[in-house]
Amino acid sequence: MPERPEKDPIPDMKKEFAELREAQTAKVEAQKKSKVAEFERAQQKVYEEAEDILRIAREYSPDPVKFILQVADDYAKEESISFLAAGARIGQYLSPEWKRKVDKAVREYFEEVKFSDFAKSSTGNNEIETLKILSEEGYSSFLVVAAHYPNDIEGRKKAFDSFFRATKLSRAAFDEFKKDSFERKELIVLDPGSNFPEAKKYIEKIKKEGSAEEYENLINLIYMHRIFSMVILRCLPEFDCNERTILFQKMANDAGIEVGNYIETVGHAALKLDGYPLVFDPFDMKIRTSEECARQVGYHASEGGGSYFYRDREGEYLAEYDDSNKYPKKIIGYRKVEQNATPIGSYDDICGVLNDVALGFLEKGDDAGARALFESILHLNPDYVLAVAGLAVCSDNVQSLERIIARGSNSKEALGVMATLLKRKGDLDGVKNYAEKVLNLDPNNFSRTVELAEILEKKGNDLVAITYRKRAFELNPGDLSNYRGLVRLYADREIFDRVVFYTNWFVKVRGDEFPEVSENLKNLSVAYLRMRFRDFGYDFNGLGDSDSASAKKFAEEVFDICRRRKVSVSEIKWEEIFPKGSSIDYEGGSVPYDQGAANLNALNKVEDWIRNNLK
Amino acid sequence: MEDVFLFGRKMNREKNRLEKFKKFKKLLIKRVEAEEKKKAEEMVK
Question: Rounded distance, CA A355 to CA A420, Å?
Fold first, then answer.
C-alpha cells in the first residue's frame, strides 16, 4: 500500500467527481431500463423450475425429502462436487424449508472446518472447491466468521451464536425503520444540513421529471442508506468494525439491498466492489471509482463477481495461493486491518461520508489526517458547515466555531462539533452548555446524554448525573459503559435495589454476552437481600450474621426463583410476605429447630407471593 | 427495493441457477424412470 503522501494531499476532486458521477448516472439509467424486467423473468423461471422439482418428488416418492437428497447425491457425483456444495447450489433455493435445512448444514460445516486441511493435497482441493461454491451461493459471511477463529472451535461456535443473534436483532430494528411513514423518510432524506449539492440536484430532478414511483424508490433507497449505520451501531456496539462490515454484508443479502460491498476482516478482505461506484480510499485520501480502488488493492475487475484476498495493510499476503491465485490454499496469519476503505453509494451524501471518516481521524488524534479531509470536503462543497466546523476543531479555534453557530447554522451537528472542541480544551462548563443545546434539539441523542452525565459526575453533581445516566439507559439498555456508570453511582450511595434492578435489565438484554455481569447479579442480589432483611429487623436466624452460610444459601435460592420466574428481586415487597413482627423461623420449623424446613417454608411463601403478585 | 447496479450480476446468477436446476431436474427424472423400470421388471418376474 502506498504511504499517505506528505505534500498536497488534496486533489481537485470536484471536477473529477462530477465526471465520474455523470458517467455513473448514465450507466445506471441505461441498466435500469433494460435489466429489471429481464431479471424478474429469470427469477420467475427459476421459481417455476423449483416448484416442478418439488412436485415431481411429491408425486413420485412416498418420502420426497429422501428422494431429493438421493438426487442431490447423484448431482454431486456428476458435477464432482461435495454433497454440501450441491445443497448450497440447488437445495437452498427449492423452498424456505429447504433453505433452513441447508443453512443448518452449512453452519455445522463452518463450525468444524479446519483451515489447516486446505494445505493437504489429498483433501485440500475438494475443500477449496466446496468453500468456493459456498461463498458463491451466499455463504461468504459464514466463511468470514469461521476465518476469525481458525484454531479456536469453541470461540468460533460462540461467534456464530452472537453473529446470528445480532443479525436477528438488527433485522428487527431495520424492519421497524422501514415502517416509518414516507413523509418522515422524506424529511430525513431532504435534511439540508446533510445533503451534498449534487445529490440534492439529482433528487430534485427526479421529483420534477420522474414518475411518483421513481421518486418514492429514490427516497426509500437513500433513507435506507442513512439509517443503516444507525441500526448497526445500536445493535452491535461491542462488535469491532470488521465484524460490523460482515454483518452489513449479511443483512444486505437478507434485506435484499446491497449495502456493504466492502468486507474487511482480520487480515483478509473480501471485495465485491461493483455495487459501489465510488470508494473513499484512506491510504492516500482519494476518492476513486470502485474499479480503480480494486486495482489499487490488487483486484482485477475483469475477473467478475469478486474474489478473496488475504493481505495485511502493507500489502503482504497472509495466505499461500494455488495457481489460480483466487482462493487461499493455506492461511498463514491474520492481522487486524485498522483503516478501511469506505464505499460511497450511488446516491450517498459524499460529504457526510467523508465527514464521518474525518471525525474518526480526530478521535484517534490524527489532526493532520482530519484536516486534509475537511479541506477535501470544502473543495467539493464550500458551504458544508460541518467541515468548516471540523477545521475550527483542528485549529482549536473556538471563535470561528462560535461565528458559524451565530451565523444561523444552529444544527445539532454543529453544536455537537462545538461540544467536541470544548471537550478537547477541557472546558467542562462549555461542553455542558452545548451538549444541553444539542439535547434540546434532539432529546434522544444517546452520546450527548452520556456526555452530560460524565461531566456532571466530574463536577460532583451525582444526583443529576444519575438522571442522565438513567435516561441514557432507557435510550440504549445494552450499552455496557453507561450501565457500569449508572450502577456505580447507585452503588456509591448503597442504593442496592436500583443496582439490582438495572443489572437485571442489562442481563436481560445482553446477559449471554457478559456472563460476568450475570454472575455479579447473583452476588448483588444476595447482598441486597441480606441488607433488606436487616433493614426490616426480621427475627430470622438464617439471615442474621450468626449464620451467614445459611443466609447466603437462602438468598441464592430466592435469586434462583426470581431468575426462573423472570422477575427482579428488587420487585419483591418483603413486608407483604413477612409482615413486621412476624417470626419467620419457627413457622415451618419442627422441634427441635430445623433450619432447612424453615428456609423451605419461607421460600415457598416468597414463590407464592411472586406467582400471585408479579407477572 | 434493489440497487440497480446489481441487476446485471444478479440476473446472470439467476440464469446460471436456471441451468443448474434444469440439470438437476434431468437427474431427478432419470432416477424416476430408472426406479419405475426396476419396479416393472420386478412385476414381470
Answer: 14
Query: Cα–Cα distances in Å, from A305 out to A242, A274, A532?
Result: 21, 8, 65
Q: Are A86 and A72 in contact (CB under 8 A)?
A: yes
Q: B19 and chain A: CB distance < 8 Å anywhere? A: no
Reply yes or no on whether the pLDDT at A348 is more than 70: no
A382: DSSP letter: T
> What distance in Å separates the CA atoms of residue A286 and residue A267, rounded to the nearest whole number?
23
CB contact under 8 A, A78 and B11: no
Q: Are A244 and A232 in contact (CB under 8 A)?
A: yes
Three cell numbers, residue A542 = 438464617
pLDDT, position A437:
84
SS (H, E, C) A509-559: HHCCCCHHHHHHHHHHHHHHHHHHHHHHCCCCHHHCHHHHHHHHHHHHHHH
A267 contacts A318 by C-beta, under 8 angstroms = yes
The reply to whether omega before A592 is within 30° of 0 (cis) is yes
Q: How far is CA A207 from CA A174, A183, A198, B2, in A?
A: 26, 14, 14, 19
Mean of pLDDT over chain A: 69
pLDDT interval class at A178 (50, 70, 90):
confident
End-to-end Cα spacing for chain B: 60
A42, A221, A224 ranked by CB distance to B15: nearest: A42
User: What would the pLDDT profile of A44-98 be if each residue is shown by its tens digit?
Assistant: 888 899 999 999 999 888 899 999 999 999 999 999 999 999 999 999 999 999 9
Sign, Cα dihedral of A82, A86, A92, A98: negative
In the numeric block, the cell 438522571 is attached to A467
What angle do helix axes A412-424 and A398-406 make, rounded to 10 degrees? 160
Q: Is B7 on the interface with A (CB under 8 A)?
A: yes
Distance CA(A160)–CA(A112), nearest Å, equals 12
Closest-CA distance, A274 to chain B, in angstroms, reads: 7
Residue A493: partners with Cβ closer than 8 Å, 6 or more residues away: A462
Cross-chain residue pair B5–A93, CB shorter than 8 Å: no
**Interface ipTM:** 0.87
Query: CB distance from A378 to chain B under 8 Å?
Result: no
Residue A127 makes CB contacts below 8 A (sequence gap 6+) with: A113, A117, A118
- Cβ neighbour number for residue A436 with a 10 Å cutoff: 13
pTM flag (> 0.80): no
Element (H, E) at A393: helix A385-394
| Three-state DSSP class for residue A320 | strand
Q: How far apart are CA A471 and CA A462, in angstroms?
A: 14
Q: What dihedral do alpha carbons A167, A170, A175, A176 form, nearest 10°?
A: 160
* Distance, CA of A361 to CA of A355 (rounded, Å): 10
Question: Which are the contacts of A227, defined by CB distance < 8 A and separation ≥ 6?
Answer: A174, A177, A188
Predicted confidence at residue A86, as pLDDT, reads 94
Structure-derived torsion over alpha carbons of residues A197, A199, A205, A206, reported in degrees to the nearest 10: -160
| Rounded Cα–Cα distance for residues A551 and A338 (Å) | 51
